[in-house]
Every structure is written in structure tokens, then in C-alpha cells.
């Protein structure tokens, strides 16, 4: 898909991976509309901005309608909006919190896809790139709900690509590992904490922060999104940086070895 005059929506573009992706696509020649939930940016970005809340149907429909009204088409949708979840035991989140996590991280992608695909079908072309996670194929203890949302993103993306490819639309999922963005920004804490998990929760959170401090920046994901967008024959899965090695291990390492490695890395009892 050539960048000349191609119109892009990037959700969650106020910071981190979304902002880096919007900026990279803009410098590559795309006309980018980056969305956020109305929070002003400290500096003027290199792309157009829209207010959009992916958890509200009317907000999604209004933003897509605005872009179509201005440009007449949408060539690329990058579904990035979402939030992280602080390490915690699965039972430390209420049902309401679990639903909220899925509403943004997964249902937000569904809402955006439903709003954009009819226009892509009409124009006979388009590309959708969903930002997943290494935790979409390699579950992490004490991140059960977040892992579940990213597994859902991966499964949805695979099925959707089968459905839409004969209509000129392709779907890919980019699945990074740790990315060095502010850990405490836009992270949901458990709303039903239990003392039985307190020590191990604090230990896992400390370990995650240690790894994040030396992790790749969001630019590595932005470059992978651009690669997927430009590919004549796009792959279904893209795993930038460390994630590519983790995908290899997931595929070929014995289950017991991988299991022990995950626990050792998080400093959990084997």
C-alpha cells in the first residue's frame, strides 16, 4: 500500500506507541489522524488529531464519519488504544474491572473495525494493523486479564484477515514485548487487592519496572507498523525486537523449559 495520499487513523496517539506510530507514518508520507480521549498534547504533533473514546459507539462513529467527510476514504487503521494492567493475581480484579479491561483493549478494536470496514469494502482496499502483545501468545503470570485481551486480539485478527482478504483488505497484528514507556501512566491497578498476593505482586511489579528500564522504545513498534503497512504481501503476525526471539521459543522450546524460564525471569518459585 503506497503512502501517497493514503489516509490513516491511529487510535491512542497521545503518547507512547500510538504517538510514535502516528509520527512515523506521517514522516513516511501518510495523511495521519491520531486520536485520543481529548487530552491536550504538550506540543503540536506532526499529524492531525481527533477526540475519540473507543469505549463509546457514538464517539467511534463520529470520528470515522469526520475523517470520511474530510478525506472521502480510510486506507489504514492502526488499532493501538488501550491500557496496561499492573501485575496482580487474577482474582484481585472484580468482574466490573475485568469487563472494563476488555471493553478498551479488545472491544475498542471491534468498534473501530466495524466502523471502518464498510468504507474499506466500498473502496475495495484497506489495511488494518492491530497492536497486540507478546502476551497474546506467551501468557505471563499475574497478568492474566491483560494476557486474555491480547489473546483475543490475536484470534480476532487472524479470523478477520481470512474474512476480508478477498475484498482487498488485509489484517495484521504487531506483538511487541516490553516497550520502554512510563510504567505508571495509563496503568490500571487491581480494585480488589488481597493480602495473600501483596508480596509477590510487589516483587513482580519491581521486576517488570527493571526490565522496562532497558527495553526498546516505542519507535521499534512504529517501524514494524510501517513495514506491515507497506508490505505487498503482509504477514499476519509481526514480532519486533525481543518479541521475535520469544515467539521462536514459544514455538520450539519444550513446554517445561519455557515454563521454568518464565518463572525464573519473574523471580517466581519454580
UniProtKB/TrEMBL annotation:
<dbReference type="InterPro" id="IPR051911">
    <property type="entry name" value="SDR_oxidoreductase"/>
</dbReference>
<dbReference type="InterPro" id="IPR036291">
    <property type="entry name" value="NAD(P)-bd_dom_sf"/>
</dbReference>
<comment type="similarity">
    <text>Belongs to the short-chain dehydrogenases/reductases (SDR) family.</text>
</comment>
<dbReference type="Pfam" id="PF00106">
    <property type="entry name" value="adh_short"/>
</dbReference>
<protein>
    <submittedName>
        <fullName>Short-chain dehydrogenase/reductase</fullName>
    </submittedName>
</protein>
<dbReference type="InterPro" id="IPR002347">
    <property type="entry name" value="SDR_fam"/>
</dbReference>
<keyword id="KW-0560">Oxidoreductase</keyword>
